[in-house]
Design goal:
This protein is α+β, with helices and mostly antiparallel strands. It has helices at about 10-20, 20-25, 70-90, 95-99, and strands spanning about 1-5, 35-45, 55-65.
């Protein structure tokens, strides 16, 4: 199994996209925002053959991000995310035949 790690560094583009919403994010502690993100792999770790019990790992960095701007956009992104999940998980089901 490969473990996923998220790099805490953010690109300048991600920082710029969040700057406009910083006060809203601060004031909405515990809130939820829907976003479209782009990730890039930045590191991988493969244990040596004699290191039993250790998993491979890949680290990803968020390099692009846009937050939904209003309730309509938020709902549209949530529906699209649900569609993407359905397609990803439907292999071998009736849904996969219809897709």
């Amino acid at each position: 199994m490969t473990a996923i790690k998220i790099d805490s560094k953010v690109s300048a583009a991600v920082e710029a996209a969040l700057e406009d919403r910083a006060d809203e994010l601060f004031d909405g502690l515990g809130g939820h925002w829907t976003a479209v993100i782009e990730v890039r792999t930045v590191e991988r770790t493969q244990p040596a053959p004699d290191e039993e019990g250790k998993d491979r790992a890949v680290k990803v960095r968020i390099v692009g991000l846009e937050l939904a701007g209003d309730d309509l956009e938020d709902e549209r992104l949530r529906r699209q995310r649900a569609d993407m999940k359905r397609r990803r998980t439907s292999g071998g089901t009736l849904d996969s035949v219809a897709s």
